[in-house]
Prior knowledge:
This protein has helices at residues 5-18, 22-31, 39-52, 66-74, 87-100, 113-116, 136-146, 175-190; strands at residues 56-60, 79-84, 106-110, 124-129, 147-155, 194-199, 205-210. By secondary structure, the chain is an alpha/beta fold. A seven-stranded mixed β-sheet has the order 3-2-1-4-5-7-6, with helices on both faces. Strand 4 (124-129), helix 7 (136-146) and strand 5 (147-155) form a beta-alpha-beta unit. Helix 1 packs antiparallel against helix 2 (22-31), helix 1 (5-18) runs parallel beside helix 3 (39-52) and helix 3 packs parallel to helix 4. The protein is globular, with a radius of gyration of 16 Å.
Amino acid sequence: MEITPNDIKFIRWIAHKFGYPLDEMEKYAYENYIPIAKPEVADFLSFIVKLKKPNNILEIGTAIGYSTIIMAKAYSEVSVVTIERDINLAEIAKENFKKAKVEDRIELICGEAQHVLPNLTKMYDLIFVDAAKGQYIEFYKELKRLLSKEGVILWDNILYKGYVVNEKNVKHKRRTIVYRMREFIEILYQDKTLYTVILPLGDGLAVSFKEESSC
């Protein structure tokens, strides 16, 4: 999601909280129209990582590495695999990982997630999805396969600028994405193997975890 001027003061608070180089990264993202995690989502990411202490995290959509660094800094023992399709953003992210001194715990794969995911075999305790909204359905089955027994999936921007719940104001060029996101939300809620809630954070954050089988 794009960062607005109203977000900047909150992002700067997040950047100050988590430290260098996030303060530089939020400025770069704003000036270059690069979407990064909303401040409240960034804070929640740090919270959930500190709470669960995952061994392995998978992220879909690295951009410049903002959320990747936040998760890596939240728990010093975690390893992160992050996927980014834009080679230029991937190179910027790698430099940011070095500045944050977390590069030894982050593996960045440059490529289309739908092509990369089928080749992954490791199980992940936490998965953060912040990529092309129209492709969440395509990612869904592979991410369930890669989710550990007590794992959690976070789906960012699930309400897509509010259009998902405000049908009257959906512009024509956005209708396909909106309809696909509505379809995806319905799939999540109908899936009896997952328990999903949507939190009013940022542009909507869906949280899914594997439901224990009943006796």
